[in-house]
Design a protein that fits this description.
7 strands, 2 domains, alpha/beta, single chain, four-stranded parallel β-sheet, three-stranded parallel β-sheet, Rossmann fold
Length: 247
């Protein structure tokens, strides 16, 4: 199967290891991964900030770049949600573009859901953790997968290493521009989230969104909390021996 990688801005800039892991895992399961070099932002920051004209420009660009590919996979549910849920309404007044957006939406997949739903991969059966782990469920994943899905992907029969945080749907306070416009509220939400994660006793946090990881990792460092963050793609790649563990 040919797959086009939609890497997303934050993964490309801050979490290249997660992007590399996505490629290695997809190749491991028989996919031929292609990288459209002209890809840029999907327009989500502009859209969420109310700059819809600017977001339309980026949406059209993304459609043109990824249209030739039958399958598109991304490590970010947030950006996939932008493509699947917001492109078509954003282009509603342009019938030809709206139709193209709807076709692209059908072909866009978040990494873990693609493994499970399209490649029939049992993620939980692959993962090997030698320490307790917990997870963060990103708000923007709600239209793509549920918190119960993420829990299932991380839980093997007899697995005792997964520590469920209280209030699994608690937001980390990032929300893109929300953290910039409302820093005091964002920080309070972040501290609540970090308290919940730290209370599990786990030091490894599975987080599949770059923005959330930036928010929480920065907050954890400032507070001196011994929390580390990994994308599920890295965990799968590490468990399969496809990548060297980072120092």
């Amino acid at each position: 199967m040919d797959v086009a990688l939609f890497i997303t801005c934050l993964t490309d800039s801050f979490f290249p290891r997660a992007g590399e892991a996505v490629v290695r895992v997809l190749r491991h399961f028989g996919c031929r991964v292609q990288f459209p070099a002209g890809q840029t932002c999907c327009g989500q920051p502009a859209y969420n900030s109310g700059f819809h004209d600017e977001a339309r420009v980026l949406a059209r660009r993304m459609i043109e770049i990824f249209e030739p590919y039958e399958t598109i996979v991304s490590p970010s549910a947030s950006c996939v949600a932008m493509v699947k849920q917001h492109f078509a309404p954003l282009l509603a007044d342009e019938p030809a573009w709206r139709s193209r957006a709807e076709r692209l939406a059908e072909r866009a997949h978040e990494f873990a859901t693609f493994l499970v739903d399209r490649l029939n991969v049992d993620i939980a059966g692959l993962l090997r953790f030698d320490e307790p782990v917990t997870f963060h469920y990103p708000c923007h994943a709600r239209g793509i997968y549920g918190a119960e899905d993420l829990q299932r992907w991380l839980t093997r029969d007899g697995q005792v290493n997964l520590r469920l945080p209280q209030h699994v749907d608690c937001c980390c306070g990032f929300g893109g521009m929300f953290a910039v416009d409302y820093p005091e509220i964002s920080t309070a939400m972040l501290n609540d989230k970090l308290d919940l994660l730290a209370a599990t006793g786990a030091r490894l946090v599975i987080c599949n969104e770059g923005g959330c990881t930036l928010q929480m990792a920065g907050g954890a460092r400032r507070r001196g909390l011994p929390l580390r963050f990994k994308h599920i793609a890295e965990c799968v790649a590490d468990s399969l021996g496809l990548m060297k563990d980072r120092p």
